[in-house]
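Re-run requested by the PI after the first attempt was lost when the workstation crashed. Everything re-entered from the original request form. Ligand of interest: pyridoxal-5'-phosphate.
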Amino acid sequence: MDSTADRAPSHLFYQTRQRRPLLERAEGVYMWDASGKRYLDGSSGAMVVNIGHGNPNVLAAMRAQMDKATFGYRLHFETEAAEELARRTALRMPEGLDRIFFVSGGSEAVESCIKLARQYALATGQEQRWKVISRFPSYHGSTLGALALTGTATMTQPFAPMMQEMPKIPAPTCYLDRDNFSDEERGRRYAELLREEILRQGPESVLAFIVEPVGGASTGALVPPDSYLPRIREICDEFGILLIYDEVMTGAGRTGRFLGVDHWPAARPDIMALSKGFAAGYAPLGAMAADGRIVEAVLDAGGFVHGYTYAGNPLACAAGLAVLDELERLDLPANAARRGESLRTALEGLMDRFPFIGDVRGLGLLQAFELVSDRDTMEPLPKELNAHARLVDIAFDKGLIIYSRRTRGGHKGDHFMVCPPLIVEEAQIDELIGLLGDSLEAFA
Ligand code: PLP
């Protein structure tokens, strides 16, 4: 049976008209299409399915919630699922970020963060603060508020006239720098760009700085030097600016610790966005975690003027709670750290075979590699080669799913996310690398 057989293309108006195979079922790290072909999910979808597909405990918890209630409007009822998930989530947050606000995805989480920050400024007599500085490259979501913070020109340009332009500073793309600075020095230099931008904008007008602690798909898993985020925290404190972490991709164990910030605990944010691995694809769910002092000030001033109909949906929260149980029961952040090491070593091994792999980087099971035409200069491949799409298609044909983008600050580069579910086993990493090696061979 042809899995792409005639179907009405009613919802197919994304980037291309190309039809995708019909998904039949998914279990663990594998997915099967309607023709029976098996795929190794080497990117957890879009870095979402952290606990793997078809987890029976999560499905049972969702069924149990369905038997009780699938919807209760937040202004009418509390639900046990939402209350318990909020309590358990707060326990995993940096100290003080104990107020949780549920949403349905990453973009909504980011919108909530910037709207809470703004209302905190209003509540504390700082009306002149509204600018949110972000970085390029970066990705914070597709709704107009989150998009205004996104540093990926191809995504923002069409909507530029409809958005308030927000200031951006370069993310630490250290792997492109050809200088003699130590990592420590380079991290501090990149952080100073924030201080310079704050002074350029006028510190009294700056509300917040938003950052992915470890870069996601837009940067290809960019890990900052250890000195970067602690210095960013100091700079925010110096000017009374809120620090927002977008942990939509890095949260829920992906980087080998529960949160990205857990690698740099001194660089604690004031507000955080979570989604993706938080409910691991079992339900649309995201969250904002905020410092109690911010929430209390906003409540004292009349309340948070914001909210979504599906916020705190009990079925989504039951899924999130069961996912959190699994993350903890199976100690998946630790598995991500362990398997991340093997994956990293294996990807670096591919560099010996394929000179056009310019860089391998990442943390835990948020790993990426970048293709270049010259490893010494890190010159990107010509755009016309369309490498980011071609290699993904070749791999897909061979039964391996990876995720790619062509962005890299002011430059252009093809990078590929290799981010299997955190339950991945050693033999499955070998299988992944085998399929990837065959794909790169066919690509060369
Ligand atoms: N923030 C980051 C860091 C992301 O990676 C994404 C999605 O890729 C988002 C926000 C937006 O999340 P969503 O697609 O769930 O709206």
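Saved to the shared folder this time. The chain is about 35% helix and 20% strand.
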